[in-house]
């Protein structure tokens, strides 16, 4: 569990929890999920002393639950946002991107490496409590970023409020999907190539089913994210109308950041749906190509049967047990019948070739 003092002109990590809130800025409590579960009593006491309102028991259970979907809730003292991140597990994305050639085994491993752990935010007026999974890169990223930025840095100033920092962290989690998008696109592309390769018999249908289930899971996750952010925006719109000029400016900034996060989630959702449609199209094309190949094979076999049927008729005619048959007692009878069969066979081959029955290309 870490304590940080965030202000426009300062950012520092506190060794212990302060007795009271600083005069400027706000306090950020960054805790792992297990640390929060063990030290929840200490955190509740701090929130009661600083803000006058501890967390509700239901919200404490939500922050501890690592299977909870993205959602938003509000009380008179604070706002609670649970947001499931969408990214590849640490180190796995770079591992797959660096490799030039892919295999179906790596595709399965890539799909299994997606991390959707939830991150909880309890947003008070001057306190931000975040509950992260173990070894969370989002927390580490913002600790380093806030330690480097300053008030004079253009576009990189420190957040003025806990809500602003929350939206920045949520936006960072949404943007981390860009790295995962390249990974998913590449691995699903390899899966489609294996599916549409006419020289290989694709039989790894469980992998394809896992890919479709993963995409469905990602779509549901993005829809939950969108609903949570939309409820956050609705809560901002339903706030008190009569506020000061500074508060009004901060609220407009929060609305702007919230709409930007919502737009990014919409892009992620649209891309996931495109991947779903692409995977479904690949399956349909696979079965269409398989049916076309079967039709071509059956057409070739039918043509070969049609070529040999007249030849069988000729041999059957001269094989009848009659005393008097044409050419049956002639020395040249064999050569005449053989020549006749060759001519009939070549004539049928030429006829079927003209009709494009022996060609893979259709007649225009």
- Percent helix range: 55-70%
Task: Report the average pLDDT across residues.
Answer: 80
CATH superfamily of the largest domain: CorA soluble domain-like
Which CATH class of the largest domain is shown? Alpha Beta
At CATH level 3, the topology of the largest domain is Beta Polymerase, domain 2
CATH-level-2 architecture of the largest domain: 2-Layer Sandwich
Shape: rod-shaped
* Structural classification: alpha+beta
Describe the strand arrangement of the main beta sheet, using strand numbers: 2-1-3-9-8-5-4
Could you spell the SSE succession in H and E letters?
A: EEEHHHEEEHHEEEHHHHHH
Question: Topology, please?
Answer:
Elements: E1 2-7, E2 10-14, E3 26-32, H1 33-38, H2 40-51, H3 57-64, E4 71-74, E5 79-84, E6 87-88, H4 92-98, H5 104-112, E7 114-115, E8 118-123, E9 127-132, H6 137-148, H7 162-175, H8 177-196, H9 205-237, H10 245-318, H11 333-354
Parallel strand pairs: 3-9
Antiparallel strand pairs: 1-2, 1-3, 4-5, 5-8, 6-7, 8-9
Key features of this structure:
364 residues; Beta Polymerase, domain 2; alpha+beta; 7-stranded mixed β-sheet; single chain
């Amino acid at each position: 569990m870490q304590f940080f003092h965030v202000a426009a002109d300062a950012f520092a990590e506190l060794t212990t929890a302060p007795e009271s809130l600083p005069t400027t800025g706000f306090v950020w409590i960054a805790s792992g999920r297990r640390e929060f579960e063990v030290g929840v009593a200490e955190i509740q006491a701090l929130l009661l002393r600083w803000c006058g309102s501890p967390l509700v028991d239901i919200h404490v259970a939500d922050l501890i639950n690592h299977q909870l979907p993205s959602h938003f809730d509000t009380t008179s003292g604070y706002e609670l946002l649970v947001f499931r991140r969408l990214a590849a597990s640490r180190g796995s994305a770079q591992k797959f991107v660096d490799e030039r050639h892919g295999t179906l085994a790596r595709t399965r491993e890539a799909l299994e490496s997606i991390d959707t752990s939830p991150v909880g935010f309890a947003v008070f007026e001057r306190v931000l409590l975040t509950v992260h999974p173990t070894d969370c890169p989002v927390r580490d990223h913002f600790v380093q970023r806030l330690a480097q930025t300053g008030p004079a840095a253009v576009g990189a100033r420190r957040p003025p409020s806990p809500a602003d920092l929350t939206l920045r962290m949520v936006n960072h989690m949404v943007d981390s999907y860009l790295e995962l998008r390249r990974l998913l696109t590449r691995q699903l592309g390899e899966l489609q190539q294996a599916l549409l390769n006419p020289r290989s018999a694709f039989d790894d249908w469980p992998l394809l089913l896992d890919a479709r289930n993963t995409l469905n899971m990602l779509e549901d996750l993005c829809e939950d994210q969108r609903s949570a952010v939309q409820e956050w925006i609705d809560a901002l719109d339903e706030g008190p109308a009569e506020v000061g000029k500074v508060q009004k400016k901060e609220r407009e900034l929060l609305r702007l950041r919230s709409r930007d996060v919502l737009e990014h989630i919409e892009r992620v959702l649209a891309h996931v749906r495109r991947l779903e449609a692409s995977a479904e199209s690949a399956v349909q094309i696979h079965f269409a190509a398989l049916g076309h190949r079967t039709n071509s094979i059956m057409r070739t076999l039918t043509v070969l049967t049609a070529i040999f049927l007249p030849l069988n008729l000729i041999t059957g005619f001269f094989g009848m047990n009659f005393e008097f048959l044409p050419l049956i007692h002639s020395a040249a009878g064999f050569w005449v019948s053989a020549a006749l069969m060759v001519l009939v066979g070549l004539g049928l081959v030429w006829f079927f070739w003209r009709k494009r029955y022996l060609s893979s290309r259709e007649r225009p």
